[in-house]
Model the fold of this input.
Amino acid sequence: MRAVLLLPLFGVLSCAKNINVRDERELEWWESTIVYQIYPRSFADSDGDGIGDIKGITSKLEHVKEIGAGAVWLSPIFQSPMYDFGYDIADFYAIHDEFGTMEDFEELVAKAGELDIKILLDLVPNHTSNESMWFQEALKGNEKYLNYFVWEDGVLDENGVMQPPNNWLSHFRGSAWEFREEVGKYYLHQFVVGQPDLNYHNPDVVEEMKNIIRFWLNKGVAGFRVDAVNCLFEVDKELFGGKYPDEPPSGRTDVDSGSHDSLQHIYTKDQNETYYMVYEWRDVFDEISKQDGLPRLMMTEVYASIKDVMRYFGEGEREGAQMPFNFDLITDVDASSSAADIKRAIEKFLTYKPVDKNGNWVVGNHDKSRMATRYGTALVDGINMLVLLLPGVAVTYMGEEIGLVDGYVSWEDTVDPSGCNTNDPVNYVKYSRDPERTPFQWNSDKNAGFSTADKTWLPVAEGYTKLNVEAQKTSARSNLKVYQALANLRQEKVFRYGRYESIALNTDVFAFKRWYNGETYLVVVNMRDSEQEVDLTYFENVIGKAAVVLRSVQSPKNEGDVFDVASLPVAAFEGIVLKL
Ligand SMILES: *[C@@H]1O[C@H](CO)[C@@H](O)[C@H](O)[C@H]1NC(C)=O
Ligand SMILES: *[C@@H]1O[C@H](CO)[C@@H](O)[C@H](O)[C@H]1NC(C)=O
Ligand SMILES: CC(=O)N[C@H]1CO[C@H](CO)[C@@H](O)[C@@H]1O
Ligand SMILES: [Ca+2]
Ligand SMILES: [Ca+2]
Done:
């Protein structure tokens, strides 16, 4: 009797040991991919006008393939007068002429398809360009399009002079309101003057944006990254007697009164309606995916509190973005951070995210100083080890694979409105985003192989004759080669399905462990210019010897070297991947 009972039980137990239903489930294409961000003006110029373009990107897709990325996210390529370099869109349904034609774009999608690379576009839903047909029609008094934007009466000050409706500030300094004679009212622009905010309380705007999403997804685009999404909705002014209320001061003493950071944005950011809008967009993504069988990816760009960021994943039954960007490795840490700071920054997203969702790792973009500049060139491999081997989606801003640094852009050459609007030839540097947008460095030819033009739209960074893709391809050891090896390693099941644990071994050395089905890898990164000896047996089940699988460029170790995990020597800024 007893034996009869035990036998089936034994069977269940032995099964349970080998099978975990969450393991080895089929992953969607995006769950294990590397998303490579291309800033189109700066990647490759095919026609010699000094500005990168779509044909240029198509001609360089092999590079994307070679580094192991599975998706390319393009910063905006839509028709634009370029007051904010494409983030001010005049026609959401057309390609900007400096970038090429719709045919060029279709060719890009086709070529990418052959290489099994997905194309993701940048959706900029918060505003249009002031040169859009919609805004132009609004200025002519066309009622339909007037309601596409956010208008408000000015107020008279004590001297009888007309002033903006309230104290709201633009992200790029100064009032967020601009008067238009034609309408006799002010319009809202949370970003530059040339970017009037769309009015999401108007159902026509909501439908228009969904049609824009459908239009591009139907062209085979694999998804969107959604720009500045938390600024979509302003508070409903009817709740405030028909007038938009002032925002309270932030109390920050390190910023002046023209700065966006001087106010608490309680009425212009993170409004509840914004999340619901994102969930509706997700339905549109899924609707198209159902039609053609290609799962679509939505990534949202939000700099907000971790709890607000998490709401983009969805709520209850509603699904939202699969990938709300995790900016913690940009905003919370830098070269001066301790290993404990790094651990906390990494664990923040993993701790707050819903258990069935993926993490993602971002260390740079076209708005932030380049990763190699922020962390220092010696840490490039170590940081790429984090981005590519932590659990979740890896995001690489073009150039991180070779450790591209910020370029120097003089006041005369500065074009970014965030820099120009300071009117300050000294301090513009703190605000300008041009340094992280300088042209990509392909080789040691003229303009780093980016363009044959005599003058490129931004100057090529100094030092390109040494720091470029070709040099790193031909050199025995380089950031590029480490990156490629990491991208390969990332394909292993242990990095796709494996568990994760981390320890700050001392103030400088951060380490994490990934393990799966009896395989264990350890990644060790020394944040500092110091020699160390660390004890990896602080990790559970880590004893004995481990072999070096990969190491940073300046590492004195060799692949295959074996070390006692209880006393691993670590060189200055060294990054090491070991296998137990
Ligand atoms: C759009 O705004 C810019 C300022 O950003 C201004 O120079 C330009 O004249 C405006 N264009 C139109 C059509 O209103
Ligand atoms: C916004 O949504 C949250 C979560 O659903 C809710 O707790 C909160 O009360 C809402 N806020 C407003 C102003 O409606
Ligand atoms: C990271 C990013 O794409 N930021 C963008 C946010 O939106 C403004 C206005 O569209 C752009 O200027 C930024 O580049
Ligand atoms: Ca060009
Ligand atoms: Ca808005």
